[in-house]
Amino acid sequence: MKNKITTILLLLMLKSFHSNAQWEVQNIDANNINAPVEADGFLFHNNVTNVSFEVPKFSGKYCIYGSNLWMGGLDQNGFLHLAAQTYKQNGTDFWPGPLTTAGSSLPPSTWNNIWHVNRAAVNNHIANYNTQGYQLPQDLIDWPGSTYNGVNQIFAPFVDFNNNGIYDPAYGDYPNVLGDEALYLMYNDKYAAHTETGAIPIDAEVYSTVYAYNSLGSNILENTVFVRHRIRNRSQINTYNNFYVGIWNDFDIGNSADDLIGTDITRNMVYGYNADSVDQIYGNNPPAIGVKILNHNLHNSMFYDNVGVDFYANKPTSPNHYYNYLRSLWKDDMPLNYGMDGYQTSAGITQYCYSGSTNPSFGTSWEMTSPKDYRIIGTVGPFTIAPNGYITIDVAYIYAKGNNGNSVAELGIAADVVQNFYTATINSIEDKATSNALTIYPNPAHDFVIIASSQLIKSNNVVSIYDITGNLISEDLSLSNNNLKLNISSLNAGIYFIQVKNDDGLFTQKFIKE
């Protein structure tokens, strides 16, 4: 009898582990933001410590309670496949770990990991990996470039210095990541039944890089966290159409009871802000927080009241509800309407909620007026994604604080700077294995810099210099050999980026002008 009871208890424990497991958590805290990241892709909330997206760092003040991926589409037979995550109170749709190239899942307990990389350690490794007495950092040893847990597969981007297709940090290879600090995680929606949404799995494999900058001298970038989601369809048979990817957000700017939400269509951004000039936690002139899509146009934005009494606009409870919210439809299949509460108004159908004056289809402004603890989803798509196809979504979480109740206006300015920076720098960096790395020296520099490459630089190169905000300073310099000396004596002191463009792609390096 005791053995039978023990067996039942073990089964219950295993069920609980798969649906409510506390996976590894690490914090991104390179700059003015401190935010937890969980190995299954749950962003910016630690359910054990109750710590969230904290700005300023270590202040005890939070402005995002949680943020997660929602995605779904129709297969060739018209069946909906979907995965989404909120708070994991009733279940989950994602588990740590990649899928194999054949689409098989792997035990999440053995892939319960987040990989951390520091840019300073990478730069030191590049300079000294073959120096006597150099100690290879553990973070670089553990990087899952071409193998992990006995599985040989390209799991993480790396610079393949010796071009052998194998991640060998002892021979000069290094992680090819973004930012001054980066967290890298792999997760999937296939391992078990979806207990959050109840939907049919996509067989999606997600590689997410959460990264931040602290060395660029920009207050705006000091208050920004970037995320790159690479979503791969590991289904061997399904091509998905009308596939949407959404960023679900629960903004809690200090006191969660006095917040408003909005959409800036022109900036591809959803945002939250305070209804009052004084917040119980943030005090005077509370901040605004924006979630900006950097590499796609915002196709939809939608909101719902998690505990609302209106059946059509509260917490989703079926796969179709989640899919509807991704497409600006209410739970009862009615479209979002412009104005008031967005439900069956006379102004007409819209794809964007609370868009202020940024929607050119309407002559009046639509803003939220009564604070509620709404959830808001910003969506991109629709995509068609074939087996082994992938989508890359780049996102910026931007914090801005004004001085005279103008935090939303300051957020717009910050969003423009972030977009310019991304377009000039991040978007040009290939996050795949490459041996054609550029080197800039001396760095810092005063009068000149030399651009060098491990391979012969092609004659049809264009070299551009950008400043920290992404403004183009100079362009159309041709490289004819594998070294080029650039005169930078006329530049003001500061941080710049050199971008080399050729038939192989775009390559970017940062340098400091003293």
Structural description of this entry:
The protein has about 525 residues and is mainly beta. It contains six helices and 30 strands. The strands form eight sheets. Strands 6, 7, 12, 13, 14, 16, 17, 20 and 23 form a nine-stranded antiparallel sheet that branches. Strands 3, 4, 5, 15, 21 and 22 form a six-stranded antiparallel sheet that branches. A four-stranded antiparallel sheet has the order 27-26-29-30, with no helix packed on it. The radius of gyration is 24 Å and the shape is globular.
- Would you tell me the structural class of the helices and strands? mainly beta
Distance from N terminus to C terminus (CA atoms, Å) equals 77 Å
Number of strands: 30
Inertia-based shape: globular
| Radius of gyration, in angstroms, nearest whole number | 24 Å
**Count of helix runs:** 6
Biggest β-sheet: count, sense, barrel?
9 strands, antiparallel
Helix content: 10-25%
Percentage beta strand: 25-35%
Q: If you average the pLDDT, what whole number results?
A: 88
Poorly predicted regions: 1-19, 429-436
Topology:
Elements lengths: L1 H19 L4 E4 L6 E4 L14 E2 L7 E13 L5 E5 L10 E2 L18 E4 H10 L9 H5 L4 E2 L2 E2 L5 E2 L14 E2 L5 E8 L15 E9 L6 H4 L1 E10 L6 E12 L7 E6 L4 E6 L3 E2 L3 E2 L3 E6 L6 E6 L13 H8 L47 E12 L4 E11 L6 H18 L13 E4 L6 E6 L8 E6 L4 E6 L5 E5 L6 E9 L2 E9 L1
Antiparallel strand pairs: 1-2, 3-4, 4-5, 4-15, 6-12, 7-12, 8-9, 10-11, 12-13, 13-14, 14-23, 15-22, 16-17, 17-20, 18-19, 20-23, 21-22, 24-25, 25-28, 26-27, 26-29, 29-30
